[in-house]
Please model this.
Amino acid sequence: MRLTPLALAAGLLASGGALSQVSCAPSALQSSPTLTPLPKGEAARNLPSWLQAERISSQLDKETVAEGRAEFRQGGLLIRADRLSYDSAKDLARASGKVRVIRDGARYSGPELQLRVERFEGFFLQPEFEFPLLGAGGRAARLQFLDNTRSTATDAQYTSCPRNTDEEPDWLLITKRVHLDLETDEGIAEGAVLRFLGVPILALPTLSFPLSDTRRSGWLPPSVDTDNRSGIELSVPYYWNIAPNRDATITPRVITRRGLGVNTEFRYLEPTQLGSLNVDWLPYDRLTGSSREAVQWLHEGQLPGQVRFNADLVRVSDDQWWKDFPSASRSLTTRLLPMRLGVERPFVLAGGQGLVYGRALRWQVLQGADVTVVSPYERSPQVGARIDGRLGGGSAGGSGGWDYALESEFNRFTLPNGVAARNGRVGGDRFHFLGSIARPLREPGWFAVPRLSINAATYGDIASASPLASTAGNSSRARRIIPSVSLDTGLDLERTTQAFGRAMRQTLEPRLLYVYTPYRAQSQLPNYDAAAKDFSFSSIYTDNQFAGIDRVSDANTLTAGLTTRFVDPANGGEAARLGLVQRYLFRTQRVTAKVDGSPEGVPVDQRLSDALLLGSTNVLPGWSLDAAVQYSPALRRSVNSVLGVRYSPGPMRTFSTTYRLARGQAEQLEFGWQWPVWSREGKGSPGASSGSGSSSRGSGCGGTWYAVGRINYSLEDSRITDSVLGVEYDAGCWITRLVAERLSTGRSEATTRAMFQLELVGLSRIGSNPLKVLKDNIPGYRLLREERRSGSPTDDRQTPSLYD
Model:
């Protein structure tokens, strides 16, 4: 054992076994504010030990006594006490009087400690403990150290609420005995009782939990959901840690109106494969009198030869699934469920990066009595190759070379069962080729990109009964080739100016796009995947006004736009932006989107298109404003508008409103908010909670109430379409949330569900989880506490941990 220099001097002065007294000033040893993690095994036994105090007395080869701000250090272990003695023969350290211990990030304090240092065996009487990273702690009657990795606490209490008052904390976990094993990362609590506001809410004879964020098998907190279609649903998940790279969650469910069910999720992460399999199953739904199920498989994998394989499959048992279980939706389009399978292989050729692929796509269409869903075409198969790159040197997108892109693809288009008979649509084959070559010219302050492109397609196996068959006799084949040329050019100008009361950098960015595409008749050709693009700042600067392959708009147009931005040179943030763009037609456009059943769309002979105006700013502190307006010169009014305002003066304080207008189609108002509405008197103003996870409040916590919500209101129908309304209460050491969500499932139908959650900070969350609903629906919503990662392979889902 190595002591401070003064302690060594005391030992050397001792003679004849007599105890030599030495009084000295505090040692010159400089304490480090951090501790090195304690190693294990032989490395731990060879660590140096340090002892310092105001007074040190030593008897050679026997006992050393330190008094007055005594401090002992060894690796990651620190002991402070009023009096500390060490018997080197027995390797026994005794500390008394305001004993403080820091080890592995945990802090302990109490009146008396005995410890065999190398083996880390001993006991701590009446210790109080603190876990700073968790903001929680507690006390015990006795803490027994069995070795470096194992310990036992008797009559222990644990909470994240303040413990410096005589009142019982708002929540308290009480156990008769807790066994901790750091080597196996396991804790076992015997006779555990969880009390909330003085009332026992959970009691377990034995509770097993991990001691860190690592994954471990066990039961997760129960979840309770309520909705108007299914009633009350109680779910109790069991997490199964199969292997470091595989896990599963099995969730038995009891639904009051429907019966018993189970949800399962299996996840895997192999060296060349990853994915998940989800299965929902109700053996017998009492409301429908049938078995109901849903399955989803997501997979990405690497096959030999750099071949990649992916799958996305979603299937449900019946058309009403999306209405009855909206929270269990497995697809972004709730009534169109995909089945996608694909293989692909990248390659390098002619200075470009390419991809060869084969895919298949099918749909399950969930029809209803209210609205008929028009299904997209299925592709079985889709086989193709594409490559893009640069010839002649130069950097990608810069000057000094030719940019090229090529794509060739074969598709067999079909429709889901029963769809063709309902609307007369037919399937067929298509082979298409897309190619483009451009010569970018870019210099500081300006750019010009001339481009030549081609869109060619051949259609085969068109049903003979269809009017889409080629006009050349009764042939079931048709083809077309459409070239296009364009020139995209613009300036990038900037200057230093004064604006909004401070120095700013202003840009001026004029841009011109000329496009010439000859007219080719396309009304007699199939349309499998083409649709008109939305009229926006991004789509107006494109060669083709259609997305997809089957329609190419004829054009002899010039698009002119101007954008100016104000940028703060200190931080690069954009303070304001204004933009205006409009298209001029040199001739009538004949290929347009279909309107009112017209075979090829209504020709556009208006020389000036609608104008797009864009504006945004965040100059005012806490405020952000965004606006986009499509103005029609012919109608002399706007036809599409989006206006948004958000006020966010601080964390957990946000209010936003958005107005959307699509004239003749929809007009909506949207409101979203998260705002403190009341704080207990004497504990600060509303919103005093910082959301940092501090546990400075607790029993009698001066909590804060927050209102949260989002409302979509249809001005056209004079009704609320979708809404989320709720409250959150942050008491510092616990949080409760009550949220109601209403989802429209038809013109006169809606599903409403209620979610309640109790979060015990530093322990767990109990009840249903409304956090995803709040984050997905409320712009600017922030968690009152940051979520801790669970260590699961792909997400932050909670694992069974006492401290989660």
Observations:
- The chain is about 5% helix and 55% strand.
